[in-house]
Fold this protein.
Amino acid sequence: MLRRLIQHWCVENETRGVVRISTPRAPPGKLNVVEEIKNLKRFGQEALGREETLQKLEVLAMEGNNRRLMCEAGVHKSLILFVVKCTSEDEEGRRRIKGLDESLRLLHLIGVPSNDAKTILIENDRIMESLTWLLHQEDFFNKAYTIVLLRNLMEYTSSHIVERLDPEIFKGIIGFLKDVVNSLNRTSPTVRDTVQSSRPSLGKKEPSKLDHSLVIKQAVTAALMILLETSSWSRNRSILVDLGAVSELIELEMSYSGEKRITELMLGVLSRLCCCANGRAEILSHRGGIAVVTQRLLRVSPAADDRAISILSTVSKFSPENMVVEEMVNVGTVEKLCSVLGMDCGLNLKEKAKDILKDHFDEWKKFPCIDITLLTKLLSSSPKDLLTEFNSRVGV
C-alpha cells in the first residue's frame, strides 16, 4: 500500500522531474518452481536437454524451500535418469553430454532424499555405470559432484552393493583424492586451472554460485566416508591397498591438516587397511606414515586418538620388529606414547599405549635417546597413580 501511494505521488509530480519508482520483481518462489516442474513433467528428458531449463532450476534451487519442493516432485530422479542418458553410448558409440555439467551441479544442490536413496541403485543398475564413467573423466568438479552423489546413494542402499563395489569406482575416488593433494601442494596446476584447461567452454558460461572450496571439502569428506564404509570387507580392503590408497590417504592428511572430521575419517580408513599385511607394510614404507599418525595422537579428538592408537598397536604387533622400533624412535612415537600414559585420557588408550611400550621394551633400551628410567617408571605405575601425578603437575 505504501509503495502504491509513493508511486501515485511520483506520477502527480512528474512535471517537477520526479521519476516514478518501479515495482520490484518478486523473487523466484513457489509459483516459479511449480511452473518449471510442470514443464519438466510435460517434456521429460527433452526439457532437461535445454540449457535454459537447467539454469532456471539452478537459480530456483538456491532457495531452501524450493529445493524441498523439487525433491517432493521427484526432480532428483529425473536428473539422475538424465545423467544416465548423457553418459550412455548410443548406437554409434557416442555420448550426448550437453547439459551434464548443469545436471550434476543441480543434483548437488537439491540432493537425494534418504527414502529414495534406499532404492535408486537397486532399481537401475546403469546408474553405477554412469557414476563410474564420470569418476574417470577430466572435469574435477564433476568428479566432486559425482562422489557426493555416490555417497548420498550408498548411505542407505543394500550392503550387497557396498560389498561388491566395482574396483573402478575405488580407482576413481583415489584418483580424485590424488588430484586434491596435488592441487594443495601445487605440484600440478591448481584445481581452477585444471578445470579451465580441461573444459575451455566453461569460460563462456555464467559462473556457478556454488562455493567451490566447500564443494571440494564435501567431496573429500564423502570420498573418505565411502572408503571407511566399504573397507569393512576384506575384499575391498585388498583392492584399496593394491590401488595405493594408503599412500594417498597419508599424503592427503599431510596436505589437508587442520580439518578434524577429515583427520578422523582418514585415521578410520587407515586403521581398517592395517588389518591386512600389505596395508601395514604400506604404512611403514611411507616416509610419513607412522609420523603423521603419531602427530595426530592427542591433538585432534578422542575419536582420532582411538583410531591412531589402534593403527600404532596393529602395526607394532604384526610388522617386523626392527622396522617398527626404528621408525617409532625416529619420528617420536615412543615419547608420544609416554605422554599418553602421563596424561588424563581414556583408560583404553593408556592400556594400548602401555602394551606397545612393553612389547618392545628390550629394543627401546638400545637407543640412547630414550629415557629408560622414565619409561620403566611409567610402565610400572598404575593408571590411577599416573593420573594423580598428572593432576598434581597441572595443579588440580
About this structure: The chain is about 70% helix and 0% strand.
